[in-house]
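Changelog-linked ticket: NDP example.
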Amino acid sequence: MDTQNNIQGKVVVITGASSGLGEATARHLAAQGAIVVLGARRVERIDALAAALAAGGAQALAVKTDVTDRAQVTALVDAALEKYGRADVMLNNAGLMPHSPLERLKVEDWDRMIDVNIKGVMYGIAAVLPHMIAQRAGHIINVSSVAGHKVRPGSIVYSATKHAVRVISEGLRQEVKAHGLRTTIISPGAVDTELPESITEPDIADNIRKFYEIAISPTAFARAVAYAIGQPDDVDINEILFRPTQQEY
Ligand code: NDP
């Protein structure tokens, strides 16, 4: 797998591939010769994306996946193994950000964030780890956030889930060293995706939409993923934090 860009021919499994960062990354990596395996609940979107990538000469597979169901995440990775014989990269990207102050008691939103942003990532790790350890190679990339480095009123549970992603990823990094695996945390600032639409409180959604006026293109994230994957096998990019140039927070 020591090709020039170290992306060509790699099988990359992406959760949350139906929009935003996941979709942009699938397009970017496929253009560089990666085989992409796309997971999300909105299967019509990932089917259309896989078809578009295939029409452009890439190899792509779409598998309907809800990351809150461990069996479905396992099935996503198993589909990659069955069709392509390996899974080189797992991009645990699916997530949601329904901000609200704790006093509004949006407990269902808290539960969904914990289920998708934390447990979904854990299920992704569980699905690839035995395989990657057996093949003594692999790369697990988990998506945190600037909110994984900071906390502010109104985004506490989201921030907690993204801090958890960083803690899990850093611990994972230390555990899997011995197996020759690579791990990367990517923490974006405001990127222009559907993420603000996951906010269930209208006044808060309005504020976040204003904050997102400075948001940058999802291709910024896709380039960060490609940078991490594209390094030679003996280089492990552990963490990338990026923001729009205009973003203070
Ligand atoms: P989008 O809302 O555009 O995409 C979110 C993706 O997650 C969708 O593909 C959605 O697919 C998927 N998803 C949500 N719930 C589930 C589920 N239960 N099972 C499977 N997939 C699910 O937002 P982004 O692209 O911005 O978000 C991607 C990641 O980036 C998230 O983890 C987010 O927290 C993180 N992030 C984003 C930032 C930004 O500014 N955009 C900043 C920092 C971090 P579907 O609904 O079809 O299942």
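Closing comment: Example verified and attached. The CA atoms of residues 98 and 200 lie 6 Å apart. The chain has a mean pLDDT of 97.
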